[in-house]
Write a structure and sequence with these properties.
Blueprint: H1 2-15, H2 22-40, H3 57-90, H4 94-122
Helix pairs in contact: 1-2, 1-3, 2-4, 3-4
């Protein structure tokens, strides 16, 4: 849903002839799409009830913590997109709002990378 909102904002920038911001907004869109693709293709890392390899409780807690942190990024990205929408509507602060969105998307991607590292180190795959 958030990726679609960014696409709509790109169209809005084009219709308002504010093309100087399109490259930056495209960067945000690409980072969000990368995150979406990484999440869709991620290994879950949870062992089933009857699997031969059991996951220790502290490892599972760490994985849950990463997943909860990722859920927090959903709200953060939505809020950043709201800020971009408001900035476009006001005609000012667009670049700053887009930069904040790019930063949040970067942070989410980095956090997801740490999640994968935690799974691999714990031998949860």
């Amino acid at each position: 849903d958030q990726r679609k909102r960014v696409s709509e904002l790109q169209h809005q920038l084009i219709s308002q002839a504010k093309i100087e911001f399109l490259d930056d907004l495209e960067r945000a869109a690409m980072k969000l799409q990368l995150l979406i693709d990484r999440i869709k293709t991620a290994s879950y890392g949870y062992a089933g009830l009857f699997d031969a390899v059991k996951v220790k409780e502290e490892q599972l807690d760490a994985l849950y913590a990463f997943d909860n942190q990722m859920l927090g990024f959903v709200d953060e990205v939505a809020a950043e997109i709201d800020q971009v929408t408001s900035a476009i509507g006001a005609g000012e602060g667009i670049g700053d709002a887009i930069s904040a969105l790019v930063g949040t998307a970067d942070e989410a991607n980095q956090t997801f990378g740490h999640r994968e590292e935690a799974i691999l180190q714990a031998g949860m795959l």
